[in-house]
Amino acid sequence: MDYTFFPQILAFFSAAIVTAIGLPLIIKACRYYKYFDLPNERKVHSQPIPRLGGLIFMPAAVVGLLVASRLSVFNGGQEYVFGVSTIAMTIGGVMIYLIGIIDDCFGMKATHKFVLQTVAAFILPLFNLMIIDLNGLFGIHQIPLWTGYLLTVMAILTIVNAINLIDGIDGLSSGLCILILLAYTVLLVDHPAISSLNAAIVGSLVVFWCFNMFGRVGGLKIFMGDAGSLFLGYVCAYMSIKSMMRPIAPMDCGEEQMLISITLLLIPVLDVMRVALQRRFTGHGMFQADKTHIHHILMKAGLSMHATLTCILSLFLVICGINYALWACHLSMPLILVIDVAIYMLVLWIVMLVGKSDN
Predict the structure, then answer these.
(1) Which residues of 273-308 are buried (b: 16+ CB within 10 A; e: fewer)?
(2) I want to staple 167 with a disulfide (CB 3.0 to 4.6 A). Which of 26, 137, 189, 229 is the partner?
(3) Is residue 316 situated within a structural domain?
(4) pTM, two decimal places
């Protein structure tokens, strides 16, 4: 019997159990202290919903990781050893997590939140976890240290806010993160501590996704809030950067590992970049909330919330499949990315055309 994924499976179910126990308690606390996500012109829900579901992600992940580590010892292996980069991710992750909690409970100006996110983003490169090799993208390999600092911080901020801002309908941000982190669970299986961490977060997310999507029936519906989406964004940023660094990335990976990381984060990152450019060219403030994200466009075209969720998750899987096929055909990474952007824009264009014709 192949025991390769036993630690990950145990981490998954341990975190899932913690989440299943913890979420009803968080819902009760939200109702008692009146921590609700209130409906407004930008929201798709019409009733106040508890919004602190993301509080459970970090403790559930810690429990899942510790259980998997103990299983490793029980099976005659070594307890998981966490390096400097994991400590850096923990420090930055806790900072992001606390920023989200404060915003969920008391509110925070977008500019203040962005400044604090920037501070948290600098934690990773300060601990030498940064992009210093473009793996042959555009013919570039090693880049100067200062460029690596700036590129890493920009990448972290982009990913964190991409995951946060796409969290606009039930199941979307959590669904995308389930797929992204499940992929890293499998890809990084030779590094059991990191792979088990991903599996634990996936386990917590699967349970949360069920509460978020179907909890209305039993009065257990809950949103993850900024505490959850910011934390998930930081974890995704860490995994994307970590997977491209030695000794995680294979020595001969070239563009391949970078293409994997970009592919997995393409949908939320393209969305936040498109929205940012649109706000820039239409004279709106960068931090001004609007209804121009991909899920808003799909719903404006007449799709239901569940149909919108299915469409975006399907687009994610289609792009993953297309990129795999194109890479197998030996197309260059820049050309693959151009094709990805073209597919994304084509889908949006068709959706907007359909929406106009229906009106």
Answers:
(1) ebbeeebeeeeeeeeeeeeebbbbbbbbbebebeeb
(2) 229
(3) no
(4) 0.93
- Where in the sequence is the domain holding 163, given as residue range(s)? 6-257
Q: What pLDDT, in 10s, does the model give residues 47-87?
A: 889 999 999 999 999 999 999 988 776 665 666 777 777 88
Determine contact, residues 245/126, Cβ cutoff 8 Å. Answer: no
CB of 157 within 8 A of CB of 241?
no
Q: How many domains does the chain have?
A: 1
Give per-residue burial for 309-324: e unless 16+ CB within 10 Å, then b: bebbbebbeebbeebe
Q: What is the pLDDT of residues 17-46, one digit of tens each?
A: 999 999 999 999 999 999 998 876 666 666
The tally of CA atoms less than 13 A away on the side-chain side of residue 142 is 2
Q: Residue 56 — left, alpha, or beta (φ > 0 → left; ψ -120 to 50 → alpha)?
A: alpha
- Give first-to-last CA distance, the chain, whole Å: 58
SS3 142: strand
Say which residues have a Cβ less than 8 Å from residue 280's Cβ, sequence separation at least 6. 286
Q: Is 275 inside any structural domain?
A: no
d(CA 121, CA 291): 27
